[in-house]
Amino acid sequence: MQFYSNPIPSSWSALQQRAAAGEAPQVAARVRAIFGQVREQGDAALLTLAAELDKASLTSLLVSEAEFTAALAQVPADLQAAIRQAQANIEAFHAAQREPELRVETMPGVFCSRRAVPVQRVGLYVPGGSAPLFSTLLMLGVPARLAGCPQVVVCTPPQSDGTVSPVILFVARLLGISTVVKAGGAQAVAALALGTASVPAVDKIFGPGNRYVTAAKQLAAAEFGVAIDMPAGPSEVLVIADETANPVFVAADLLSQAEHGPDSQVVVLSTSAAMLEQVQAETTRQLATLPRRDVAALALENSRAILLPDVAAMLAFSNQYAPEHLILATDNAEALAAQVTNAGSVFLGHLTPEAVGDYASGTNHTLPTSGYARQYSGVSLDSFIRKITFQRLSATGLRALGPVVETMAEAEGLAAHARAVTLRLASLATSDEDSSAVGAAAAANPYAGLIRPSVERMQAYSSARDEFEGMAPVMLDANENSLGSVGPDDFSRYPDPHQRAIKVELARLKGMAPNQIFLGNGSDEAIDLLVRLTCTPGGDDHIVICPPTYGMYEVAANLNDVRVERLLLTSDFQLPANAAEVLAASTAKLVFLCSPNNPTGNLLAQQALETILRTFKGLVVVDEAYADFADAPSWTTRLEEFPRLVVLQTFSKAWGLAGLRLGVAYAAPALIAYLDKIKPPYNISAATQQHALAALATAPSLDQMRDELLAGRQDLARQLPQLPGVAKVFPSEANFLLVRFNTDATAVYDQLRARGIVVRNRTTQPGCAGCLRLTVGTAVENEQLLQALTEIGRGPAG
């Protein structure tokens, strides 16, 4: 290392030059030529450059399924476990970076919001060659997946035998990434920017690399309209080491960066000449033991040890240098950290090596180099999303804000801008009277315009049991066959068409009135009747569903010839940030919201549902089939507040009575009356009513059964992530778990079925690629499931 003693500040900029800076024109010319070659020849150029630069003879650019399978068997179990732990830490840190949608009412009636949308197509560059950086794929792939980027393409240099590092392929499969391209250097960046037959063009390119990769990313951004994360070139570290530092640790940190490549740079600053001498000596000693000592030695030739007079000077030098990695090897690291203004990532104290950030602490190691830390941040969840702003004005808002805009537009001479406001204000003025009348009518009848006209006109069927309630000694009014009344269970008579006894018991249990309850032949009957009640078949009426979700909503719509609109859930299975705005503008008659959701198991955010309930003009159906397993209050407690709310529940789940086929809808009495009007006359059998009443009499025993099931769910959720092949277990508030596998989930499903264990394959559901839904069973069944998945994950050799 080059040693400098107390250089004056005016000379610092020369000491801060990176090794590659002097070669910039030659590098840029070479990169531009490569872009031209890839643009003209496509895949052929990538194959030629692989042979020329990587010494690899390729027949295909894309990693095949067979190569993925072969690679997985080559990664030792201890390394797999270490990678999974690193993945968990990175995921935890980056998931915490999510921000709730920003919503501000800037003045009465003027609503502004901002929501995050994932970058649709991202390319991840993973350095390979002599040191394949599988950790980089973790650092880029985890936030890409958390952000919900629909298309992820990985480029990494092939090894000389034409293969890709098996560890890189293991990580790709762990993250659910299937498109891995055998291409490195500037040519990989060119392919991602321009697109070829094998390599999809992307919207944004991520990843570190040498000076050619950095120059290629900058060219892609400047001339081809492709965004980049940052100019991330050769790695670098700066260490501030006071007299309390351990020279052995400092030398190890310097070498950990020097071994990345010959153009890496390391810098150590100290106020102690003795410390610098010890660091130099220790660096020389440790260098001799490194497998990559030749590479590290070349990097050390352009690295520096600098003696400075005080801590203030060291901090000033560091902030001017703007290192990719900054290590504060001091006793007062926390205090010094407050004065750091330019750095990619900072490591505090004597026990925090830079290597933990490279691999597994949770922070991202894709960081700005070459002084770009003055302008850029390291990669984060934000790197994979865009934030879109929205605004919506109510009539009140337009009346208040409109004149402001008119005045400003006229002052700038932009008459069309002013007119766009003026015309709307005039329209409001003429419609105020009509609007008031409509608003009063809507308040008086919250279902105005929602119920099919034919339903409003029809007369409900009146059964014999409607005309004469109860029983008499001789019942000859319902054409029953009284000769069949034998045995203790007399099913020769029609049941109560209104299930009065059950409703009374349910009302007592739920703390509501019987006339707020509708009973159906499973929740499916209530779903079907709600569609029939509101939507005219074959017309313009439609419903909204939020996939991935319960499939019967769409089935009911299709059976009734009703159009379906889809509002997709986000990657974490929540309603999109603009859901309320979309639904407020919708003319749909119904929106079905499943919470806890099926097949994902999560609760939808309460605030999002409340906003929808306040603004959506149709019926809001909240399906709570799994609510008894959730740690959240039921929406049945909000029925008085929201007259267009319908809550669905069932006896099939927590009650353990799926065979009864008894579903419940809770709603305002007027809405329940509509459902009673169109239901079949005797839709709940006498046997079902008898068993339901018996179950209601023993309702307290449900708590014990629920607690036992939740314990089983917790145990499965703890053990499943430790199994080979399991990529993620999603949080669940239901009696099942959605599990993503890093192998072929359909093959796992088939192998479980072959062992006599049947689960639900959800791989085709939106956002559920690679997922199976596992119902929580008995303790014995859960153990059989875990054992089978363990055997499947180990493969034939296991």
TrEMBL record:
Keywords: Amino-acid biosynthesis, Aminotransferase, Histidine biosynthesis, Metal-binding, NAD, Oxidoreductase, Pyridoxal phosphate, Transferase, Zinc. Pathway: Amino-acid biosynthesis; L-histidine biosynthesis; L-histidine from 5-phospho-alpha-D-ribose 1-diphosphate: step 7/9; Amino-acid biosynthesis; L-histidine biosynthesis; L-histidine from 5-phospho-alpha-D-ribose 1-diphosphate: step 9/9; Lipid metabolism. Its cofactor is pyridoxal 5'-phosphate; Zn(2+). InterPro entries: Ald_DH/histidinol_DH, Aminotrans_II_pyridoxalP_BS, Aminotransferase_I/II_large, HisP_aminotrans, Histidinol_DH_CS, Hstdl_DH, PyrdxlP-dep_Trfase, PyrdxlP-dep_Trfase_major. The keyword Membrane does not apply. PANTHER family: HISTIDINE BIOSYNTHESIS TRIFUNCTIONAL PROTEIN, HISTIDINOL DEHYDROGENASE HDH. The modification N6-(pyridoxal phosphate)lysine is found at residue 653. Substrate binds at residues 235, 257, 260, 325, 358, 412, 417. Its EC number is 2.6.1.9, 1.1.1.23. Binds 1 zinc ion per subunit. It catalyses: L-histidinol + 2 NAD(+) + H2O = L-histidine + 2 NADH + 3 H(+); L-histidinol phosphate + 2-oxoglutarate = 3-(imidazol-4-yl)-2-oxopropyl phosphate + L-glutamate. The gene is hisC. Zn(2+) binds at residues 257, 260, 358, 417. Residues 490-789 form the Aminotransferase class I/classII large domain. The active site is at 324 (proton acceptor), 325 (proton acceptor). It comes from Hymenobacter antarcticus. Catalyzes the sequential NAD-dependent oxidations of L-histidinol to L-histidinaldehyde and then to L-histidine. Homodimer. NAD(+) binds at residues 125, 187, 210. This is Multifunctional fusion protein. HAMAP family: HisC_aminotrans_2, HisD. Belongs to the class-II pyridoxal-phosphate-dependent aminotransferase family. Histidinol-phosphate aminotransferase subfamily. Belongs to the histidinol dehydrogenase family.
